[in-house]
Write a structure and sequence with these properties.
The structure is a homodimer of 146-residue chains. Chain A has 146 residues and is an alpha+beta fold. Chain A contains four helices and eight strands, in the order αβαββββββαβα. The termini of chain A are close together.
C-alpha cells in the first residue's frame, strides 16, 4: 500500500482529494456475487468471465497471485485469446479492478477494451518477476494504488 | 486484525511479549515453494497436501476463501477424509498457519493431528457463516490473530 501522495514509478501522483474520491468509490462498489456474503471462494473467481467497460467479453480469470506472507491477492490473472493454449496471453488485474455484474455473471473492468487488451501482459512461456516495481506499474495502469 | 491485548471470543489473550514472539516467528518462517518469489499462484496452493505437526498427512487444500473487499485470503480450506465426496469435511485454516515444507512438498500446520482433526469444520452440505465471530473462533483455535 502506497502512502497518500506517494509517487508511483510512472509519475502517477494522487492528491488528497483524489484519494478521498477513490476511497468513496471503493466503499460504494457493489459486492461481487452473493451480496450477503463477505467472502468469496477462489473456485468461484477462477473461470469467471471478464468484460471491458464497453461490455465486450475479453477473457476469464485463470488464477490468482497471492502474497505468501501477506495472504493478499495481488492479482487476478485473466487469460485472454488463444486457441488450445496457443497464443494465449495473461493479464494480471489488480483485485480491486474487478466489479461483479450480476446481469453478465462476470467481472467488469472499468477501462475500454483496447486499453484492457494493451494492458501489461505475458505469454504462456514467460513469468513476470512479480516484484514491487512490476506491481506499481500494473496497478498504475489501472489507476489503483499498489 | 485484532489489537495487541485484544480479548478473542474464547478468552485467548495475547500479552505484549507473546505478540513480539509471534511477530518474530512470523518473520522467521520459511517462504512457501520457490523462495525467490514473493507471490504464489492459487492453483499451486489448491491441491497441496497438509500435514500435522507430527508429520501425518491430514488432507489437502481444496479452495481459498477471500475477502471480497479486502482481497485477503482469510482461509485455506482443507478437505479431509471421505470417499468420492461422501463424508468429506472441510477445515478452514488461517493462511498464516500454512508453512510449506519442501521435503514433504506440502504444508505443515503446527498442531498435533488430533487437535487438527477436531478443529472447526463443516460438511459438504453446510456452509459456515463466515462472519467476524466465526473468524475469531477459528483463528483463536490455531493461536493466530484474526
Amino acid at each position: 500500500m502506497t502512502q497518500p501522495g506517494h509517487t508511483l514509478s510512472n509519475d502517477l501522483k494522487f492528491s488528497g482529494e483524489e484519494l478521498d474520491r477513490r476511497r468513496e468509490y471503493d466503499r460504494s462498489r457493489p459486492l461481487e456475487r452473493d451480496e450477503s456474503r463477505l467472502l468469496i471462494s477462489s473456485d468461484k473467481v477462477e473461470g469467471t468471465q471478464v468484460y471491458s467497460a464497453d461490455g465486450e467479453k475479453i477473457g476469464s480469470i485463470d488464477h490468482l497471485m497471492i502474497g505468501k506472507r501477506s495472504g493478499r491477492v495481488e492479482y487476478a490473472v485473466m487469460s485472454f485469446g488463444g486457441f488450445l493454449g496457443m497464443g494465449e496471453s495473461y493479464h494480471p488485474l489488480p483485485w480491486d479492478t474487478l466489479d461483479y455484474d450480476t446481469d453478465k455473471d462476470g467481472y467488469v473492468v472499468d477501462i475500454d477494451k483496447n486499453r484492457l487488451k494493451e494492458a501489461p501482459s505475458y505469454t504462456r512461456d514467460e513469468t513476470p518477476d512479480y516484484n514491487r516495481g512490476y506491481g506499481e506499474n500494473v496497478y498504475a495502469y489501472y489507476g489503483v494504488m499498489y
